[in-house]
Structure formats: C-alpha cells, structure tokens
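User:
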Amino acid sequence: MFFRRLLFFAIVIAVASGLTALLALALAPGGWLAWKVVALAAFAGTAPWTGICAANGLLGFAILVACRDPVRCVFPAIGTDTADAPLPATALTVTVRNEDMGAVLPPLGRLLDGLDASGSGTAFTAFILSDTPDGERAAVEAEAAARFAAGRSGPVEVRYRRRRDNVGMKAGNLMDFLDRQAAGFALAVVLDADSEMSASAVLRLTRAMVADPTLGIVQHLTVGRPTQALFPRLFQFGMRAGMRVWATGQAWWQGAEGPYWGHNAIVRIAPFRAHCRLPPLADGSTILSHDQVEAALIAGAGWGVRVLPSEDGSHEGNPPALPEFIQRDARWLAGNLQYLRLLAAPGLRPMGRWQLAQAVLMFVVAPLYVIFGAACAAGAAGTPSSAPRPWLAVTFAIAWIGAIYAPKLAGYAETALFRERRQAYGGIKPLACGAAMEFLFVMILDPIMQVSKTLGILSAAVGSGRGWTAQNRSSRRIRWREAAGLLSVQTVFGILLVSVMLHDRFALMLFLPFGAGLLVAIPFCVATAAPELGRIVGAKRICATPEELQPSG
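Assistant: Predicted structure:
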C-alpha cells in the first residue's frame, strides 16, 4: 500500500499546488493588494480538498478503464470462490425511529423474498430495531411489524424489538441488539430505514466476509433509489457517476483501512461488539456521526474495513427537496465537527485519523469559499484589477471546476466509453443530456451549500447548532415563503457580491464558479421541488438510472 498511497498524495499535492500557483499568476499583475492575499490564502486552504477529489477521480477512472474486473482489482476477496462454503448465521438489522413503516417494510420484504428464492434464507434472520418512543406511533409501528412478520411464509424469521429510549441513538440501538439479542449470529447486515438491498448484494457482502476472515466491516457502494421527485433525481444521477469512481480510486489506495457509512454494510459481530462501543465525549455528549469512528476503532484493533465498489443492488433514499438536503447536511456537520476532538484518540491507526480528518475537511473548507468570494468582491469594490492576462482567470476557473468535479466528470466519461454501461442509461444522447442537466444543477447547488455549511459552522461555534434533528423522507411542494426564509442569506450575499463585481470582469470570472448559484437560490429551491417539473423530467426519462429504464421485476 505504501507506493499506492505515495502516488495518491503526490497527485493531491500536485493538483493543490498547481491550482494555487495558477491563481497566484492570475492575481499577480497590479501588485499584491490585501484582497488578493486574502483570496489566495482562502483558496489555498480549500486546495487540499480539491486535490483529494482530483486524485480519487483520476485513480478511479484509470482502474475502471484499464482493469477487466475493477471490483476484484481493489477487493481481491471478491474473486475467491465461496459458493460451496456454508453461510454463517447472519442478522439483517433495520434501525427505525418514528418512521413510516409503509415505506420501510416493502423493501425489506423484497430482500427477504429474494433470499428465500435463492435458497439461502435459512442463514438469515431479520430484526426490526426500533427506538420509537412510547405513544401512538410506537403502537402503529409494532402492529405493522407484527402483521409483516405474520405474513411471511419463507424461512427468514422476522423479529421486532423496541427500546423505550434513544440512548446512543442509532449506534446505541445497534450495540444494544448486539449485546442482548445477537447470540449465535456471526455477522450483521446494517440497514437504515431508507435502505434497499437485493438478495444478491447481501449475499455478495456475506460471501466476502466468508472469503476473508480478517475483515471486520465491508461497506457496499450505495446509490439512490429511482424517484420522480426532481431534486433527488438530479442529485443522485450525478452522485452515482461520481461515487463509483471515487469509491474505486479510494479503495485502491486505502485497501483494508477504508470508510464505513453506517448502512448497506455488513459487520463481523464479535470484533465490532468488542471494539466499536462508543464512549461519550469529554463533555459527556454523544458521538453523533458514529460510522467513521467505528471504522477507525475496528481498523485500529487490526480488523479490515473495505468498500465494495459495486453499485448493483444497493440503494438508499435521498432528501426529497433542498430544505431536507440542507437539514441532512446540518446533521452531518454536527457529527463531523466532533471528530476534531477524536483525532488524537488512542488506539487509532494513521489511516483512521486520516478518515476522520477528511470528514472534517469536507465541511471546514466551506467558510474559505465564502471568504474567497468576499475577497474578490472587496477587490472589485476598490480599484478594478490590473489584469493584462485575463485568460489566466478563465484557465484557473476551468481547472478548478475540472479538479473538484473530477470524480463526477470521470464517471460520466467512463460510462460513455463502454457500450454496455451507456446502453444501461439509454444510450449516449440520454446520458449526455442527463449529465448536462445535472452538472448545471450541481453548479447551482454547491454555492448554496457552501454558505449553508458556513452558517452551520458559525452556529456550532456559538453553541446554537441544531444538532441531530428528525428527517422528512416524503416528497413535497416548497412554497416561495419557505424558500425565501431558508435562503435569504444566500440570495442577499450573492446579489451583494455580484453587484460590486459587475464593473470588474477579472474578479467576476474568479467568483462565478463559486457564487453564480447564490443568485437563483430561492427559485431553484421552489422549482426542484415542483411535482409538475418532476413529472415532466421523469416522463422524458431525463437523468433516468438503469433501474428505472430496466426494472428488475
């Protein structure tokens, strides 16, 4: 792994330093005014994250294009023949809290039907693990689970357990199960309320554990469920293109010290129970984003953590609209910022600390983007920039976009290169149309989210963060008043910045990749939640996934 990691970090450093040098060349004419120094310093702070994106994108693309079997290239155990090996007793765990069981149970039923049909159902038992508090919702939930269990006729038994408190939240829920009900089980598949996995995907995870007894966690690549709602439809189309490339590249250089996302994964119960029990933080608070800490702890104890970068049969739901997306991001922000207090924790390997640091970096660069935009505006508000070589600003902007979106762009390119893959998306024209529409979508979305993350970090700094709030998973229409209340800061900030840059072409060229989306944040929020637009885009099969175009059953 040493040379693989050396190559990865060499690419990170080359991209980060190259982009920073390019920006310095673009800013240098006219002397180093204060705003230029601030803009360069702010960008330099974001450059490591940009380098990580580029490195994972380039490495993943190279593997996907050059390797006959890319999954086996980064996960050797997948090539081991375990077809005749008996499957260990495996628990299928679904964690719920105040969820709509009408949405939770059908995907679980399809999984159990598939396992029954495969002839492997006797190795599995399903557990619905509830943290729903006492009350009417708990009674409805228990009744739905009982009906579901009674209606099953296959060999997979379904059991329901409800705690009356939420101690430790989801991580505590799962650990309570492992402590109290997991006797006799060797493995546990971890599913969220919005997870959907096929029987083949679950068997793929289980056989990977059989093939390599040193593995403690195997995380399956997860993609979005097919949906007609416009916001998640656009988001997951691009996320799918980028995540396959990112996960493949990352798995190549991280090996058996990879990440864990807390769902659509399998854990080996004995080491997980022994090493992944999360203590409270120094101030007594609960660790919110448990998954990456658990991965670092079990890897620190010598067990392998690998990502299986195959997208077949592993799905999750995505937030139905921008307000829910921002809310989910705020949950992750609250959890990931806690990792700052864990970076020096004992028992972690260097790669485990890297995983935590990378999760923090994903959020803490956001204020630097805001500072960069404000610095460009400050420069434009003063004396217009002396820029005898404005083409450098354009070159920098294009290079910046190409680097930070490298996994997504490489994913689209890789899909287009191979006939079977592009045909799964309906051919080259639908793929290109979807990619263009999604890329416009993300260029608007990302500036909005950078400002949102910055506001979240400021709230956390003064102790007024919203913390781990409940989730809405149902599609809905967004009214103009709600959108304006949510996105007024982004809109005003964008208008102020652009208004002072209109007379300075140089500053505007530097800023637009960061901030153009701020100007249309409110109509963007309303439009991407509009059911009518979702139906039109869905009817035209724009941004359609293979599962939508070729349903499995």
